[in-house]
From TrEMBL:
Single Gene Ontology BP annotation: prosthetic group biosynthetic process
Name of this protein: citrate lyase holo-[acyl-carrier protein] synthase
UniProtKB keywords: Nucleotidyltransferase, Transferase
Pfam families: CitX
Main EC class the enzyme belongs to: transferase
GO molecular function: holo-citrate lyase synthase activity
Taxonomy, superkingdom: Bacteria
Reaction(s) the record says it catalyses: apo-[citrate lyase ACP] + 2'-(5''-triphospho-alpha-D-ribosyl)-3'-dephospho-CoA = holo-[citrate lyase ACP] + diphosphate
Protein EC: 2.7.7.61
Protein backbone atom coordinates (compact mmCIF):
# COMPACT_ATOMS: atom_id res chain seq x y z
CA UNK A 1 0.00 0.00 0.00
CA UNK A 2 1.35 3.43 -0.86
CA UNK A 3 1.08 5.65 2.13
CA UNK A 4 -0.64 8.88 1.38
CA UNK A 5 0.16 11.77 3.69
CA UNK A 6 -2.09 11.99 6.71
CA UNK A 7 -4.80 14.57 6.61
CA UNK A 8 -5.41 17.26 9.21
CA UNK A 9 -8.81 18.28 10.42
CA UNK A 10 -8.26 21.74 8.95
CA UNK A 11 -7.62 20.24 5.50
CA UNK A 12 -10.74 18.08 5.77
CA UNK A 13 -12.91 21.03 6.81
CA UNK A 14 -11.48 23.16 4.00
CA UNK A 15 -12.18 20.46 1.40
CA UNK A 16 -15.75 20.07 2.73
CA UNK A 17 -16.27 23.81 2.38
CA UNK A 18 -14.93 23.76 -1.16
CA UNK A 19 -17.17 20.82 -2.04
CA UNK A 20 -20.24 22.54 -0.59
CA UNK A 21 -19.41 25.73 -2.53
CA UNK A 22 -19.09 23.78 -5.78
CA UNK A 23 -22.39 22.02 -5.12
CA UNK A 24 -24.17 25.34 -4.53
CA UNK A 25 -22.67 26.76 -7.71
CA UNK A 26 -23.81 23.82 -9.86
CA UNK A 27 -27.33 23.81 -8.41
CA UNK A 28 -27.55 27.60 -8.83
CA UNK A 29 -26.44 27.48 -12.44
CA UNK A 30 -28.48 24.48 -13.61
CA UNK A 31 -31.41 24.04 -11.17
CA UNK A 32 -30.87 20.30 -11.31
CA UNK A 33 -30.05 17.73 -8.62
CA UNK A 34 -26.58 16.38 -7.93
CA UNK A 35 -25.08 13.09 -6.92
CA UNK A 36 -22.15 13.52 -4.54
CA UNK A 37 -20.10 10.39 -3.93
CA UNK A 38 -17.34 9.85 -1.38
CA UNK A 39 -15.87 6.85 0.40
CA UNK A 40 -16.50 6.26 4.09
CA UNK A 41 -12.86 6.07 5.20
CA UNK A 42 -11.68 5.86 8.78
CA UNK A 43 -8.50 7.24 10.27
CA UNK A 44 -6.22 10.00 9.06
CA UNK A 45 -5.34 8.51 5.68
CA UNK A 46 -8.18 9.08 3.23
CA UNK A 47 -6.38 8.08 0.06
CA UNK A 48 -5.22 4.49 -0.02
CA UNK A 49 -5.76 1.28 -1.97
CA UNK A 50 -9.07 0.50 -0.25
CA UNK A 51 -10.46 3.94 -1.00
CA UNK A 52 -9.23 3.88 -4.59
CA UNK A 53 -10.68 0.46 -5.46
CA UNK A 54 -13.99 1.32 -3.78
CA UNK A 55 -14.15 4.74 -5.44
CA UNK A 56 -13.57 3.37 -8.95
CA UNK A 57 -16.15 0.61 -8.50
CA UNK A 58 -18.67 3.03 -7.01
CA UNK A 59 -18.18 5.51 -9.86
CA UNK A 60 -18.80 2.72 -12.36
CA UNK A 61 -21.92 1.52 -10.50
CA UNK A 62 -23.40 5.03 -10.47
CA UNK A 63 -22.73 5.52 -14.20
CA UNK A 64 -24.24 2.10 -14.99
CA UNK A 65 -27.33 2.78 -12.88
CA UNK A 66 -27.90 6.18 -14.51
CA UNK A 67 -27.58 4.57 -17.97
CA UNK A 68 -30.07 1.84 -17.03
CA UNK A 69 -32.58 4.44 -15.80
CA UNK A 70 -32.02 6.72 -18.81
CA UNK A 71 -30.69 9.47 -16.58
CA UNK A 72 -28.26 11.73 -18.41
CA UNK A 73 -25.16 12.84 -16.52
CA UNK A 74 -24.66 16.40 -17.75
CA UNK A 75 -21.46 17.18 -15.88
CA UNK A 76 -18.81 15.21 -13.99
CA UNK A 77 -16.16 16.39 -11.55
CA UNK A 78 -13.76 13.85 -10.07
CA UNK A 79 -11.38 15.01 -7.35
CA UNK A 80 -8.53 12.87 -6.02
CA UNK A 81 -7.21 14.98 -3.14
CA UNK A 82 -5.27 13.98 -0.03
CA UNK A 83 -8.51 14.57 1.85
CA UNK A 84 -10.11 11.76 -0.15
CA UNK A 85 -11.84 10.93 -3.38
CA UNK A 86 -14.89 12.92 -4.40
CA UNK A 87 -17.22 12.60 -7.35
CA UNK A 88 -19.83 15.18 -8.25
CA UNK A 89 -22.39 14.55 -10.99
CA UNK A 90 -25.11 16.81 -12.40
CA UNK A 91 -28.16 14.71 -13.27
CA UNK A 92 -30.84 15.65 -15.76
CA UNK A 93 -33.97 14.71 -13.81
CA UNK A 94 -36.81 16.34 -11.91
CA UNK A 95 -37.53 13.18 -9.92
CA UNK A 96 -35.05 13.41 -7.04
CA UNK A 97 -36.78 10.71 -5.01
CA UNK A 98 -36.34 8.09 -7.75
CA UNK A 99 -32.72 9.16 -8.06
CA UNK A 100 -32.26 8.82 -4.30
CA UNK A 101 -33.89 5.38 -4.32
CA UNK A 102 -31.52 4.22 -7.08
CA UNK A 103 -28.46 5.47 -5.16
CA UNK A 104 -29.59 3.84 -1.89
CA UNK A 105 -30.05 0.61 -3.85
CA UNK A 106 -26.38 0.76 -4.87
CA UNK A 107 -25.34 1.36 -1.24
CA UNK A 108 -27.46 -1.61 -0.15
CA UNK A 109 -26.75 -4.15 -2.91
CA UNK A 110 -23.25 -3.51 -4.34
CA UNK A 111 -20.57 -5.73 -2.78
CA UNK A 112 -18.74 -2.55 -1.67
CA UNK A 113 -21.88 -0.51 -1.15
CA UNK A 114 -21.32 -0.25 2.58
CA UNK A 115 -18.17 1.77 1.91
CA UNK A 116 -20.02 4.16 -0.41
CA UNK A 117 -21.48 7.45 0.68
CA UNK A 118 -23.73 8.51 -2.20
CA UNK A 119 -25.69 11.68 -1.49
CA UNK A 120 -28.43 13.10 -3.66
CA UNK A 121 -28.63 16.88 -3.36
CA UNK A 122 -31.88 18.52 -4.32
CA UNK A 123 -32.36 21.92 -5.87
CA UNK A 124 -32.92 23.31 -2.36
CA UNK A 125 -29.19 22.46 -1.81
CA UNK A 126 -30.01 19.86 0.86
CA UNK A 127 -29.10 16.19 0.71
CA UNK A 128 -32.16 13.93 0.71
CA UNK A 129 -32.48 11.69 3.74
CA UNK A 130 -33.13 7.97 3.61
CA UNK A 131 -36.29 8.66 5.61
CA UNK A 132 -37.63 10.82 2.76
CA UNK A 133 -37.90 7.61 0.69
CA UNK A 134 -39.01 5.47 3.64
CA UNK A 135 -35.71 3.66 4.00
CA UNK A 136 -34.11 2.85 7.35
CA UNK A 137 -30.93 4.63 8.40
CA UNK A 138 -27.62 3.04 7.49
CA UNK A 139 -26.26 0.30 9.65
CA UNK A 140 -22.73 0.05 10.97
CA UNK A 141 -20.08 -1.80 8.97
CA UNK A 142 -19.34 -4.13 11.87
CA UNK A 143 -22.45 -4.52 14.01
CA UNK A 144 -26.20 -4.12 13.62
CA UNK A 145 -26.50 -0.71 15.23
CA UNK A 146 -27.03 2.52 13.34
CA UNK A 147 -23.78 3.66 11.72
CA UNK A 148 -24.04 7.18 13.16
CA UNK A 149 -24.25 6.03 16.75
CA UNK A 150 -21.28 3.66 16.37
CA UNK A 151 -19.20 6.46 14.85
CA UNK A 152 -20.22 8.91 17.56
CA UNK A 153 -19.49 6.45 20.37
CA UNK A 154 -16.36 5.10 18.62
CA UNK A 155 -17.58 1.55 19.21
CA UNK A 156 -14.99 0.00 16.88
CA UNK A 157 -11.25 0.57 16.52
CA UNK A 158 -9.74 1.93 13.31
CA UNK A 159 -7.87 -1.37 13.03
CA UNK A 160 -11.12 -3.34 13.19
CA UNK A 161 -12.77 -1.11 10.57
CA UNK A 162 -9.80 -1.26 8.16
CA UNK A 163 -9.73 -5.04 8.53
CA UNK A 164 -13.44 -5.26 7.67
CA UNK A 165 -13.01 -2.93 4.67
CA UNK A 166 -10.09 -5.02 3.39
CA UNK A 167 -12.19 -8.18 3.67
CA UNK A 168 -14.98 -6.55 1.66
CA UNK A 169 -12.53 -5.42 -1.05
CA UNK A 170 -10.97 -8.88 -1.30
CA UNK A 171 -14.39 -10.53 -1.54
CA UNK A 172 -15.62 -8.13 -4.26
CA UNK A 173 -13.74 -8.77 -7.48
ZN1 LIG B 1 -21.11 -0.86 15.16
Amino acid sequence: MHDAPGTSLAQILFSREQRAAKQREWVNTHSLPLVSFTINMVGAIKKNRIAKVAFNKGHQAIVDTCARLNLTILKTDRVEADTGYELLLLIDTSDVHSLKRAMVEIEETHCLGRLFDIDVIGIDYHPLSRQSIDQPRRRCLICEQEAKSCIRQQNHSVHQLIKKMTELINACQ
